[in-house]
Write a structure and sequence with these properties.
The chain is of the alpha+beta class. It has 2 helices and 5 strands; from the N terminus they run H-E-E-E-H-E-E.
Amino acid sequence: MYVLLLFCIVLFIILYNNTEHFDNATDEIAKKEFVYEGAKLTDDALFKDLIIYDNDGTLDGELGIEKCSKNCKGNCVEYGVSGIGWCFPV
């Protein structure tokens, strides 16, 4: 009985640690270096005035999209579900 219980606990731990959750997703998803075939996607004249607002790293920190909506004199866009705000000034 104890062997089966121990086996189930170990199996649960292994499966839980191998699944990706939103809270343990790395910042690799939301990098600022948007590289495509050796060149940055935002590296041309169209995006020369693009401002990127990052999230605060603290628990009660402000999201980048919130900072963008407060400070940007233009249009704000959230990059995916990361909370990073992109400001396209007008």
